[in-house]
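Changelog-adjacent note: as of this version, every example in the card shows the full chain rather than a window. The one below runs 257 residues end to end.
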Amino acid sequence: MNIIPLPAFRDNYIWLIHDGRHAVAVDPGDAAPVEDFLAGHDLTLAAVLVTHHHPDHVGGLPSLLARHAVPVYGPARESITGVNHPVREGDTVCIDALGLTLDVMDVPGHTAGHVAYHSAAPAPGSLFCGDTLFSAGCGRLFEGTPAQLAASLAKFAALHEDTKVYCTHEYTLSNLAFARVAEPDNAQRDAYAWRCEALRAAGEPTIPSSIGIEKAVNPFLRCGERSVVDAVTAHSGSRPTDAIACLAALRAWKDVF
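Full-length structure tokens:
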């Protein structure tokens, strides 16, 4: 199974999963990169996965569906034109053409109905998390609450540490710049930053990350760590009462960073 990042807009990734014959597009905000890759590699589109309703994730659906009569899986709690298979927590998506099975997770926070797709096979497993989790960061709280986002991130943190994280924006370096002030002393984060800087300098994506990496370097997954709490306290002048309050303060800080 191949998982290919298709750059779109300024910093989006549309993920294309394929086996050399059939393909699945994840969050196609623009149809053109998908169509170009399909044509260039003689692939047949088998399905589309959507994580949430924002235009940079669904804008390509009308064009794709005009040429490909395929199932489109998307969040049941959001109204998205073109989604013909609404899904929610506990559902399983089976793409028979690729032998691919994905479990659906409800992960509100960035949007109210955001979902993610997790496949444990082939090992080490894959997580298509949309804009809920980024490498070294997380999505803005446009529609959800800090408690919802904390619960969503906890679901991701509970996955196997080798699970590959396929988020949908190349925000890693800017997130790492914030992570340096949100947790000044983190040697693993610094080593990861050096690797990511080298990748970007070579024109390569920093994604996928992994759950293990994110638990080690991402301050939004480390809101119970004293080092993060201390930094938030120093910035805001008030010590968070719990991990959710820390996450809320951290997200508000990042919003204006």
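Structural remarks: The mean pLDDT is 97.
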